[in-house]
Amino acid sequence: MSAPVLSHIPASSSSGMASVWRPADKSGDAHRHGLALFAMTDARRAHRTLLLLRHAKSGYPDGVADHDRPLAARGVREGALAGDWIRAHVPPVDAVLCSTAVRTRQTLERTGIDAPVRYLERLYDATPGLALAEINASPTHFGDDPATLLVVGHEPVMSSLALALAVDGIESEVGAQVADRFPTSSVAVLRIETSWAGLELGSAQLVAFHTAR
């Protein structure tokens, strides 16, 4: 059964159901930011952009289950900085796959990214293979073929997936940075030349890595 389309899902929800949130139509302000890594042209869909974002720094309140841990004060600030960097350096995000954990939901909220979201329980306790399967299914999740897809998840899956997808693995400068450390509020940017369904290990270009601080 396809997930319901909801007007709003609070960031603190811990429901395990996959769900989609689609924002109201806007005038396109987010599409007017400068792009430093990619040229914005009519041929943008000739390639795709994948962003792998680790959640921002979370707190450890007593008696709170791991799934429900909220962002720490530092994470609230750095989640917003991650959103600023994404808007300044990559094409506008068309769709988001997000873990159902509270800290990933709150990270996405803090980025200010305004795009359809699919919340997936499988991304909370994922493996790189499970995460890739959800990315492959993006056109089905959203009923469209997003040009730029953001995945908000956890370690060690974000770094492992970035390196596994990259054609050069850890041999490139960016790959070596990802392999060394993938802190909270970090984002890896990959350029995809295939369809989402056709994305497989060793088929993408790892073009950038940034830690929001």
UniProtKB/TrEMBL annotation:
It holds the Pfam family His_Phos_1. InterPro entries: His_Pase_superF_clade-1 (IPR013078), His_PPase_superfam (IPR029033). CDD domains: HP_PGM_like. SMART domains: PGAM. Gene3D superfamilies: Phosphoglycerate mutase-like. Residues 1-25 are annotated as: Disordered. This is Phosphohistidine phosphatase. It comes from Mycolicibacterium duvalii.
